Amino acid sequence: MGHEVWTHGDVYSYGILLLEMFTGKRPTDNMFQGTSSLRNIVIAALPEQVVEVVDPVLVQEYEEGEMRSNNRLTEDRARIRIKIEDSLISILEIGVACSAELPRERLDISDAVAEICRIRNILRANRIFE
What is the DSSP string of 14-25? Predict the structure, then answer.
């Protein structure tokens, strides 16, 4: 408030928005008190516990889709699940990089958008979420 618009501030907001969308949590939730924050929770979960931190609705929708397509080979399902988890990790890493505490440490918005497009293209190429 009272300051000029600055791309480093905008990229911070973009990063927090990504974290909110993919975790289903708000940075103002009561669970974040003291030094605990949405960003810190995501950092602690990456990469091994990404499924624990993403919005359960995202995981549920994938699992429901997997059940509907039970004619796919098990190897196919495993490959798709790995691609989805890798994509979630990458997206959350972008959110973390964009929302770094110090503005000079934040990811440039053009790099963030390019990375999101790269993830989308990988998912499309693998016919995931067309």
Answer: HHHHHHHHHH--
Peptide bond before 47: cis, by omega within 30 degrees of 0? Answer: yes
Residue 87 Ramachandran class (φ > 0 left, ψ -120 to 50 alpha, else beta): alpha
Domain boundaries, the chain: 7-125
Averaged pLDDT, 24-36: 83
CATH 1.10.510.10 given to domain 7-125? yes
- 93: Cβ contacts below 8 Å, ≥ 6 apart: 46
Over residues 33-88, the pLDDT tens digits come to 777 899 999 999 999 999 999 998 887 766 655 555 555 556 677 777 888 899 99
Q: Dig out the tokens for 85 from the structure.
A: 């988890």
Separation CA 21–CA 53 (nearest Å): 11
The beta strands (E) that lie in 3-129 are given as: none
**To which residue do tokens 């501030």 refer?**
9
| Confidence at residue 52, expressed as pLDDT on a 0 to 100 scale | 92
